[in-house]
Recover the amino acids of this structure.
């Protein structure tokens, strides 16, 4: 009798554990979707030249946009004090200002919203005992990264308010990469709470999958430098650059290392070459999984990942050849997030579910 009671109690506990895992997992998926939206709105904000339209950082009061004509004129007057207006947008009408203002306001509002979307359910899940083991530390780390990202965002905007007419490419690349790191962390934790029927892959396959995620993040960082320097408009031919594999004038800045971050020609060249490198790594990963894990989910995911990277390369080429119109630029950025997301899911799938961080 006692044995039957204990077995029944264990079954009920496991059922509740599975339910809690699903609740936490779907909460993290919701956070992940909002993060993707923030990055895409951020991309549109950058491509429409809207990122400097709000010249102050007001984490609380900034939620409320201008509510009357006088308040709009006050915001517009602040914008007219910065170099971007004086050197690029001088003569802009109030209606044109409103257009760029709403992009930046929406971007900041979404960033605030995702903070609440993480913090409030985290308190609830923690208080009701739905978070166990290392999940608590992981979620606190993600929340801290979100706070840091807000500070980085203002640090980026501040770089364009006094001397520059746009934000620093260094800070833009850091801001974009940090957003992608947070996305990676959220999806990694969420996929760790999923059920897996396939046994974990060999350690060498797991490590290679992890390095692919790192390579995609590096490529996104390089893409941030390209965006910040408008380097996509430097060479709009493919496969050659200015009729050569290695173009001239790539090392005109002194000291030489500055060319890697400040010379648009060099930055575009590096972004192209590393894209080929990432694609080659993905193909090698396919060969590895076919050799050591043929017929498994791991091998099929590796093949899909390589296909997504190839498609992203094609989108990048079309974006380049068409002189980076906003729709193709946003598609290129958005599909980079698709590639990153699948790479993270593949990496986590190769490792299987959490062994000790169950919910």
């Amino acid at each position: 009798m006692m044995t039957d009671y204990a077995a029944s109690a264990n079954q009920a506990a496991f059922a509740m554990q599975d339910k809690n895992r699903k609740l936490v997992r779907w909460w993290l998926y919701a956070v992940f979707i909002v993060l993707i939206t923030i990055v895409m709105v951020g991309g549109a904000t950058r491509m429409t030249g809207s990122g400097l339209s709000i010249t102050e950082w007001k984490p609380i009061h900034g939620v409320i946009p201008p509510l009357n004509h006088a308040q709009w004129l006050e915001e517009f007057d602040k914008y007219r004090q910065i170099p971007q207006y004086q050197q690029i947008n001088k003569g802009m009408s109030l209606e044109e200002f409103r257009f760029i203002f709403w992009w930046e306001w929406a971007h900041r509002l979404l960033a605030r919203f995702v903070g609440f979307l993480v913090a409030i359910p985290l308190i609830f899940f923690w208080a009701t005992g739905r978070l166990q083991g290392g999940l608590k530390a992981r979620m606190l780390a993600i929340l801290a990264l979100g706070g840091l990202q807000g500070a980085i965002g203002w640090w980026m905007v501040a770089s364009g308010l006094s001397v520059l007419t746009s934000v620093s490419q260094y800070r833009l690349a850091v801001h974009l990469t940090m957003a992608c790191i947070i996305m990676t962390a959220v999806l990694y934790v969420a996929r760790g709470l999923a059920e897996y029927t396939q046994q974990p892959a060999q350690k060498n396959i797991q490590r290679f999958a992890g390095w692919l995620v790192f390579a995609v993040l590096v490529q996104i960082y390089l893409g941030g430098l390209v965006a910040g320097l408008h380097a996509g408009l430097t060479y709009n031919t493919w496969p050659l650059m200015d009729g050569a594999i290695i173009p001239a004038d790539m090392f005109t800045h002194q000291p030489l290392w500055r060319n890697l971050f400040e010379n648009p020609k060099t930055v575009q060249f590096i972004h192209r070459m590393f894209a080929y490198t990432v694609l080659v790594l993905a193909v090698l990963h396919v060969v590895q999984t076919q050799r050591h894990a043929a017929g498994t989910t791991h091998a099929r995911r590796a093949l899909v990942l390589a296909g997504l990277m190839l498609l992203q390369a094609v989108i990048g080429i079309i974006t380049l050849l068409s002189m980076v119109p906003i729709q193709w630029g946003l598609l290129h950025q958005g599909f980079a997030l698709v590639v990153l997301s699948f790479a993270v899911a593949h990496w986590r799938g190769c490792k299987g579910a959490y062994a000790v961080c169950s919910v």
In short: The chain has a mean pLDDT of 93. The chain has two domains: 13-195, 198-359. Residues 2-47 form the longest helix (46 residues). The two ends are 29 Å apart (CA to CA).
